[in-house]
Amino acid sequence: RSLDMGIILGMALPYVAFSVFVVGTLLRIVGWMRIPVPFHLTLFPVPEDKAGSVRELVLEFVLCRSIYREDRLLWLWVWLFHVSLLMIVCGHVLGIYFLRQQFTLVGLSSETSQTLSVLLGGVAGAMMTLSLGALLCRRLFRREVRGLSEPDHYFELILLLAISVTGIAMYLPGLHAELPEVRAYMAGLLLLDPVPLPRSSPFFVHFLLVNLLMLYFPFSRLLHSAGFFVNRAML
Questions:
Q1: Please, are residues 131 and 81 in contact by the beta-carbon 8 Å criterion?
Q2: What's the pLDDT tens digit per position in 80-113?
Q3: Is the peptide bond before 45 cis (omega within 30 degrees of 0)?
Q4: What is the C-alpha separation between 167 and 19, in angstroms, rounded?
Q5: Distances (CA, A) of 161 to 75, 92, 131
Q6: 173-197: burial string, b at 16+ Cβ within 10 Å, e else
Q7: From residue 92, how far is each of 122, 186, 213 by CA, in Å?
């Protein structure tokens, strides 16, 4: 029975979750792009040249300037979350592939690379947990925000927070996953030759939650990351 669950959760679920994530996201975007726009929606003043439009798009995407103009404290937590998310995604790809030796490519020693990789990962994880916790508290304790909040708003924050916390848990002694096992497992998935999950309970829970997030993502408000570009294309 445990072997069957391992096959389902460790070998079949990732493919199902990734397929739903990609196909569902593409279908949502195509659906948005097919919505007719009967008149120009551009708000003035706006740049008249393409270079200016691209500059405005990049600045808005990177700095979240519209949120900054409305609520600077909210902007701080949102911006910290997105920065830490970018750091974590890049850190996962490079850290797992190079087994935390990625900084040796710029001349650092093996020991320094491993220390720096762990340090940056811990800082990014702490930033994400702090920012998500602050955003959740904002919804719970600010009356005007709580009145506008719906169950899915809380679910998304709690899911992301659980992913962040389980990721940090793997830094604790006795709970960390062996990186060679993780790399072998991820490589097996990518090469369509899956191998058993690494023997780490925090990694299992963390990975299961990430798959849940991929299944949920195309149907949630979290798709605003793609909707941002669709909205700007319409404008």
A1: yes
A2: 999 999 999 999 999 999 999 999 999 999 999 9
A3: yes
A4: 23
A5: 18, 17, 9
A6: eeeebebebbbebbeeeeeeebeeb
A7: 12, 11, 17
Phi, psi of 204 (to 5 degrees): -60, -50
pTM: 0.88
Give the type of residue at 43: L
Contact 185, 197 (CB under 8 A): yes
Q: Is the dihedral of CA 197, 201, 206, 211 positive or negative?
A: positive
Residue 99 makes CB contacts below 8 A (sequence gap 6+) with 179, 180, 183
Residue type, 99: L
Q: What is the token pair recorded at 103?
A: 């900084």
Name, in order, each residue with C-beta under 8 angstroms of 227's C-beta and a sequence gap of 6 or more: 32
176: tokens are: 């960390």
147-192: pLDDT as tens digits = 989 999 999 999 999 999 999 998 888 888 888 999 999 999 999 9
